[in-house]
Amino acid sequence: MSNDTEEAILAAAAELLERGGPAALTTRAVCDAAGVKSPTLYHHFGDKDGLAAALVRRGLAQFMARKRSVPQTDDPLQQLRAGWDEAVEFALKRPALHALYVEQLRSSPDLAADGYALMRARVQRLVDRGVFRLGVDEAARAVWAGCNGVLSLTAQGAGRREVEATSDLMFDAVVSRLQRGEPG
Question: Counting beta carbons within 10 angstroms of the beta carbon of residue 11, is it exposed (0 to 12), middle (13 to 18) or buried (19 or more)?
């Protein structure tokens, strides 16, 4: 019952978050939507901040599962692009959750550790094959910054078409520069 109750609260909170943004994530609204009393929410999550952190961890786990499911191919550039596109798609489909993630990232930078490590491993393959002509750390920072710059457009309310066009431009620009071995 405990896991079912926790899942019901998280599902209700996620729906409220995506419909109304972080402001809609009130204890009362979540409890009403989940059909529980506030002591139940507090028992499972401590407080509203604990609930928000659990929402982000849950969403991040779903996101990382999708990123890890990108099949390993002989083309590491294609795999890097697939991971980049997955990040953009996640932010476009779940902008409020992405905004909450970015907010929590300021106080918990470790939230990005798995995503960064996965991206860095993909960049390492490109460096090892001589596709990227800079060191892995410099190349990984450039890819991370380029993708996160695109993701920031969702917080500004940019539409899908605009975000996708900018994403294509940024990916191509970053990759081109890394292939030429030109530092920033």
Answer: middle
CA distance 105 to 147: 16
CA distance 174 to 139: 9
Is the pLDDT confidence value at 4 over 50? yes
**Is pLDDT above 90 for 118?**
yes
Predicted pLDDT of residue 183: 63
* C-alpha dihedral sign at 21, 26, 27, 29: negative
Domain chopping of the chain, boundaries: 72-180
* Cβ atoms of residues 54 and 108 within 8 Å: no
